[in-house]
Write a sequence for this structure.
């Protein structure tokens, strides 16, 4: 139980650090910490397989993908300065206050309800797999279609358009 | 080992979701907005896992796997779009992409 609260506090603090950093790489490193903390929360909640997936897919694949893109964009020190300029305190105050009001309402509603408590459930990967390929098999197929369209979309959008000029036209221009 | 109240898990998910929402609202850098959407999806997954652990059913974890798949597809397409925007406009400002040039 104490593990849950410590990991949750770490996750919240790391996420706050993510949203206040100006340097993108620093923010991504804090994001990895946040994902690892949430993985510990999953483990405490009795979902060890999901904790492993969280580390592998979120903290591994997705963050590495974003870091690759940042490396391809080749951002310099000016981008950090510009980020500082973009995040002015005046701009920040309205959305933060409104979101905090909504969060307070949410906490009030959740704490008012009688929801019970979690007592060491431990659902292993076998139960998840049986459910995934039993009643949820249509969802698995839809996920396959989604990933396929993701691959096609990423390839189509990420392609650099080369200028195609026929060699006779090139000769004429010279 | 004392049991964990469900409220704690749901409130943690709510706080994380709200932090992601705040970050989407206050940032102008388009990569940071994508990162914030990841934070929000992760918080939604945490709520599903908490609910699944409460009733000792595997459905919550199945939903988390679906969210994970969607996040992976979304981030790949989103990063391809960001690369295209950067090549066309030479900036990461999301306000610069408010005009469609034909």
């Amino acid at each position: 139980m104490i593990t849950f609260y410590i990991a949750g506090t770490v996750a919240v603090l790391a996420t706050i650090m993510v949203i206040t950093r100006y340097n993108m790489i620093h923010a991504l490193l804090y994001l990895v910490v946040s994902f690892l903390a949430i993985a510990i929360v999953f483990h405490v909640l009795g979902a060890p397989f999901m904790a492993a997936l969280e580390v592998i897919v979120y903290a591994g694949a997705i963050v590495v993908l974003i870091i690759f893109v940042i490396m391809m964009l080749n951002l310099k020190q000016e981008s950090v300065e510009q980020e500082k300029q973009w995040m002015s305190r005046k701009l920040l105050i309205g959305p933060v206050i409104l979101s905090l009001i909504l969060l307070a309402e949410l906490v009030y509603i959740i704490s008012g309800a009688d929801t019970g408590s979690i007592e060491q459930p431990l659902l292993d990967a076998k139960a998840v797999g049986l459910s995934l390929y039993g009643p949820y098999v249509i969802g698995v197929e839809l996920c396959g279609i989604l990933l396929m369209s993701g691959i096609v979309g990423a390839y189509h959008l990420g392609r650099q358009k080369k200028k195609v000029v026929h060699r006779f036209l090139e000769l004429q221009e010279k | 080992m004392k049991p964990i109240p469900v409220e704690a898990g749901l409130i943690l998910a709510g706080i994380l979701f709200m932090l992601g929402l705040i970050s989407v609202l206050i940032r102008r850098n388009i990569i940071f907005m994508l990162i914030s959407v990841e934070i929000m999806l992760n918080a939604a997954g945490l709520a599903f896992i908490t609910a699944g652990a409460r009733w000792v059913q595997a459905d919550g974890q199945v939903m988390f796997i679906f969210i994970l798949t969607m996040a992976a597809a979304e981030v790949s397409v989103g990063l391809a779009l960001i690369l295209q925007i950067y090549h066309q406009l030479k900036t990461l400002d999301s306000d610069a992409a408010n005009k469609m040039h034909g």
